[in-house]
Description:
By secondary structure, the chain is mainly α.
Amino acid sequence: MSDLSTTRPIPSKHRLAMIMLLVIYPFVTGILYVLMPLTEGWPIWARTALLAPIMVISIVYGIAPAIQKHFAWFILRQPRLLA
Length: 83
């Protein structure tokens, strides 16, 4: 049975969205700079079929966990504890 006297902080979706945008925009731009010359002449659906899995896997397994780890204090609106 859980203790009702302890409450978990509610994450701010706005803060998470802001950090995700600041990190993912340059990431996607970089991927496009690399892939566009390599896929010149490909139809847009084929470019997207290559780009989407790279982005999704990178974001789900790399970027999002790193953001949640390093910026949890900001997302959860808690003071940052310095070690």
